[in-house]
């Protein structure tokens, strides 16, 4: 299985981005999936997760600003990020949740400027 994240970029504080995670295999229908991020010098942390049934949970910093969704038919998981803050700057990855079952992809860089 290969995970490919995309959609990152440079955005001003208060702006929005939509990240996508595509998988080479049909893994989304059988796994809860999560978006994770890692900022320089910090540990990787959970941003948001979604179950096979569509239930969601969010890390504290993402609540009320980010929305995770999935399209099993397209083997894609999305992360809509609104009201971005400078502290959201990180490389964003997706993987199974809560256990990282698959090799990490290259991630997608999100940089929020003030």
What can you see in these coordinates?
- The protein is an all-beta fold and 114 residues long.
- 0% of the residues lie in helices and 48% in strands.
- The protein has no helices and ten strands.
- It has strands at 3-6, 9-12, 17-23, 33-38, 45-50, 56-58, 66-71, 76-81, 90-96, 108-113.
- The strands form two sheets. It has a six-stranded mixed beta sheet with strand order 2-10-9-4-5-6, with no helix packed on it.
- Strand 4 (33-38) and strand 5 (45-50) form a beta hairpin.
- It is globular.
Blueprint (SSEs and pairs):
Elements: E1 3-6, E2 9-12, E3 17-23, E4 33-38, E5 45-50, E6 56-58, E7 66-71, E8 76-81, E9 90-96, E10 108-113
Parallel strand pairs: 2-10
Antiparallel strand pairs: 1-3, 3-8, 4-5, 4-9, 5-6, 7-8, 9-10
Give a quick summary of the entry.
This protein is mainly beta. It contains no helices and 10 strands.
Mean pLDDT: 94
Give start-end ranges of low-pLDDT stretches: none
- The count of DSSP E runs of length 2 or more, i.e. the number of strands, is 10
* Distance N to C terminus: 37 Å
Shape: globular
| Side-by-side strand order of the widest sheet | 2-10-9-4-5-6
Which radius of gyration do the C-alpha atoms yield? Answer: 13 Å
Percent of sequence in beta strands: over 45%
How helix-rich are the residues, as a percent range? under 10%
Structural class computed from helices and strand pairing: mainly beta
Biggest sheet: strands, sense, closure? 6 strands, mixed
Number of helices: 0
List the secondary-structure elements in sequence, H or E.
EEEEEEEEEE
């Amino acid at each position: 299985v290969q995970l490919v994240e995309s959609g990152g970029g440079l955005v001003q504080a208060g702006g929005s981005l939509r990240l996508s995670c595509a998988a080479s295999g049909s893994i989304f229908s059988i796994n809860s999936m999560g978006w994770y991020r890692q900022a320089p010098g910090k540990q990787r942390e959970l941003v948001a997760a979604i179950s096979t049934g569509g239930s969601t949970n969010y890390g504290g910093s993402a609540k009320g600003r980010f929305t995770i969704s999935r399209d099993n038919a397209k083997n894609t998981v999305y992360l809509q990020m609104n009201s971005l803050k400078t502290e959201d700057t990180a490389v964003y990855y997706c993987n199974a949740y809560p256990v990282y079952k698959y090799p990490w992809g290259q991630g997608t860089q999100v940089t929020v400027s003030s």
